[in-house]
Records
---
Amino acid sequence: MKLIRASWPVKPNIHALTTTRMDGVSQPPYDGLNFAYHVGDDPLLVEQNRQILQQAMGLKKPVQWLEQVHGTAVIKASDDDSPMAADACWSDEPGMACAVMTADCLHCCLLTVLARAWRLPMRAGGAWLTVCWKIPCGICQPRRCYGLAGPGHRATGV
């Protein structure tokens, strides 16, 4: 599996990455590594793709998947394996992975340092940065904030 990992100056146990469509099990027209149930792909293949990601990342807890709605809702990631309607999630628990799915949207990942505690990455997927700018302004008052954006499908002014 091709994982594109962030190179940023944070603790080594904090990771941010994005995947490509390569190496999954979905069949055309969903070719490869499709994580989305809502597009008509075979749910069993989507689940296999999600398991491939979880194994590649070495996660013991399930990934927090979202039912993305192009809004500004943010949820705390949970390990109960149930998707929730939101466009961003966050966690402060070790071993918890936050995920967003993107197609023609540009995603962003924020890591904040609040006092001496590290808040793990928040993942947000938004249509042309709408969520990326609306959500963080409302919840982040960090001492330090690290951010990543992209990759994206189209050229976007940032």
Note: Residues 43-57 form the longest helix (15 residues).
---
Amino acid sequence: MAKFLIIGPSGVGKSSVINSIKELRLIEVLDLDSILHGTPFPEYFTKGKEYIESLENSKDILIAVGAGCTFPEFGHKWFTEQLTIVLTGNPKHIFNRSERLQKTYNGNYEHYFSVEFSKAKELLYKSCPYLINTENKCINQVTGSLIEIIKSDTKFKN
């Protein structure tokens, strides 16, 4: 059975895609942020990794992993060894469409970009086995791309 991880910068649409997949009932889904909400860093990554590893291997699951887990000091190697799918897009567009991000970063796009699209995170994203660019795609298109990846993986047993 397979554990698929979805990672990407804050605001790219990880939770939206998880909710879309959940409605289809193709695979069990989990939004790690909903479980670890309020957990400080670096504890967030440690607890998240432990939680993911503790999940039983008898079923397929798709897990949205919060952007905070992708800081380089938290083990990029671990992500590249998993069935990791990166959602990405144009940073400026992601930032501009999200009131939450604008509030979090006090309207400072440069700060958002330096945190969410750092060189280290870019290296991580490029080293993962799957990447979906969400730019100019509706949620159904992104969901469709994700489903194609899941169904093509030999570990997926649905």
Note: The chain has a mean pLDDT of 85.
---
Amino acid sequence: MDSKILEIHKSLAKTELPEIKSGMKVKVWYKIKENEKWRTTFFEGIVISVKHGQKTLNSTFTVRKIAVDNIGVEMTWPLHSPIIDKIQVLQKPKVRRAKVYYLRERSRKQVRAKLKTTPKKKEVEAVEEQ
């Protein structure tokens, strides 16, 4: 019985997903069904939590963006959901917490200041050469 369950889990799990951590700025492409047609749209924001790891089928992640008039919008998806088309990682800032729920109380400008991005390799090499 257990081997059958494991086979089903392996067949449903996605293998081409990037490693997602809290604090990352991501763009999630997902499918929406309108009447009989499916269309693909994206949701761009900051990952505020990743729950249950990345290897299990019941793992989820929450993305938050700040819309017009500083209204926060959050969406939570199962990581291995067939609705998710792809996930692009846009920024990888240095964050010291596993859950960055404290960003909920902050404005867009405060969030940008709080999540400072780490320098890229090319920038580090250019500084070291000088």
Note: The domain at 2-129 is CATH 2.30.30 (SH3 type barrels.).
---
Amino acid sequence: MKTLFTTLIILGMTFTVSAQKKYDNIGSFGEYKSDWALVELDKKYGFINDKGVEIVKPIYDKIAPFGEYKSDWALVQLNNKLGFINNKAKEVVNPSFDKIGPFGEYKSNWAEVIVDGKKGFINTKGKFVFEEKSHKKAKRLALSYN
């Protein structure tokens, strides 16, 4: 029993030391997701899981908490462009937008997006719904369905 306890302590210390060598900073587990910790490397952010496995590479300039836009999505920023990752570590909306509004403002499953001054909408599946040429019509349609 004593040997098992000692082995566990040494393994835990080894993981902590090796992870600290790889990243500039490691956040607390559970701040974003119960078994994930935010990591920073060269002022870029990603996530590791509770086994120390990198599940989201530290490539993002910023990562917002999950649930601010959609319950299982976190807003990410990369080179001043916005997108989303989900709680399965998948990039569901490529960071290509200058602005992303809240879902449901015009229609329950739509968020208004702006890219290069052009407006459109994305849905909760991360798909582009309407481009600017249809924007006013889309807003009217969305408002009529709410």
Note: Confidence is low (pLDDT under 50) at residues 4-8, 13-19, 140-146.
